[in-house]
Amino acid sequence: MELNSVVESLENQSILVTGATGFLAKLFVEKLLRVQPNLKQLYLLIRAPNSASASQRFDNEVSGEVFRVLRAKNGVRYNTFLSEKVTPIAGDMCLENLGINNSNLISKIWKEVDVVANFAATTKFDERYDDAIRTNTMGAKHILEFSKKCEMLKLILHISTAYVCGEKSGLLLENPLRMGETPKGINSPELDIEVEMKLVSGRLNELKANQVSQKEETIAMKEFGLERARLFGWPNTYVFTKAMGEMIMGESKGPDLKVVILRPPIVTSTLKEPFPGWIEGVRTIDSIVLAYGKGKGRCIPANPQAVVDVIPGDMVVNAAIVAMVCHANQPSNGDDTFIYHTSSSAQAPLSTKLIHYGYNYFSKNPMISTPAKGKSFGKPIKVSYPIILPSVTSFLLFFYVTCVLPIKVMLLLNSVLFGDYFHDICSIAERKIKLLLRMIELYKPYALFKGIFDNSNTEWLRMEVRLDEAEANTFYFDPKCINWEDYFVNVHIPGLVKYVFK
């Protein structure tokens, strides 16, 4: 299969993008507009009640800092260019016809769109099960049903996650998930998506019948999602519902529709474009990095032999565009579901040296503490080299001795000698400990992950794009080009501090 010019192939194309206010989707939209100004149209589905609200969300949440290079490139024509090329659409992928109420606009999209790019997802590990399954699973179904009505459609580009594999170890292949397939295999109960939907409705009705508060309902639905995910072998609600979304894409697409599924691992800030270090939100490893920079990470559970699989966001987007163009004009063979791991663990593995990179940065560039009462400035936060514990068991033992036990002693002294003198201090400490233990439970599958993501399909894409040096430089996504120490110390962590911890 020969890959034609990526930039030229994008000319005069119309693309529908869902999840347009998300991190990767913004990078995707910006890159397309910057490298191919002769795109016909980008339709951006934005959750909003009407077109005015959708346009406002686009202005406020999409075309901001990440568009600054595009803004400089177009100069005084920037606003005109955007208005000509981008159409924000009010809708909701959780609804039939993607919640688009404008019948004329729907007809226009069905007649024009060449590619549907689905970036929409809720990515919280412990999201409410009803919200997660509605967006990540049934949202995929609605995308599929809408796409089948597009007369000119060449393919669906669906962004998933490499961790749909669960907690498997060894070499993990770029294979599609079959309906009902679970990480536990024959040791798992039968997975039926329709049954899961009925269970969600039943649990919600039960909670409403018991007249629980909104907070209690949220907690119950979060726990229910984690319970169902772990029953089948997935570590959290996010990857469980994304896996079911993949199953629907593969099972229900029909013989004439091509689906390209990208599975990135942990996505981090941009390596190069539109500028280095841009990021939004806290990714899997970032909460740990920021906690350490604030002096709250004395010890870290991490298997020294484990490989941390991360990839910069701009590389994911470059791979997505190349895969999209590569498959768009190829004839269908009746079973066209293409899987790409946009991962680094197979060819450019990042080890637990990441901990050293964090120490290297924060020891030279300390974060500043919150000013004490009556003070105008905080103090530099000193970090010490963290203690690395190879298992969750050893971490919990250390944590119990250094944190939990002192609190229990204080509570005992409080009840015997001091009345309620330490009560407030202990209550605050107990809440923080409970929160930390929950974070450990959610993140330990990634800190101790033993799998390596095969990226043979993705490497084939790289080989195709390398045939043209100019395009290889434009659509770079080879992790072997990354110097991890330079990236984390000089790009990612500074970007994290700048754009997330403001």
From TrEMBL:
The chain crosses the membrane at residues 387-407. InterPro entries: FAR, FAR_C, FAR_NAD-bd, NAD(P)-bd_dom_sf. Residues 17-319 form the Thioester reductase (TE) domain. Pfam families: NAD_binding_4, Sterile. Its EC number is 1.2.1.84. The keyword Manganese does not apply. It is an enzyme of class 1 (oxidoreductase). Gene3D superfamilies: NAD(P)-binding Rossmann-like Domain. Belongs to the fatty acyl-CoA reductase family. Catalyzes the reduction of fatty acyl-CoA to fatty alcohols. This is Fatty acyl-CoA reductase.
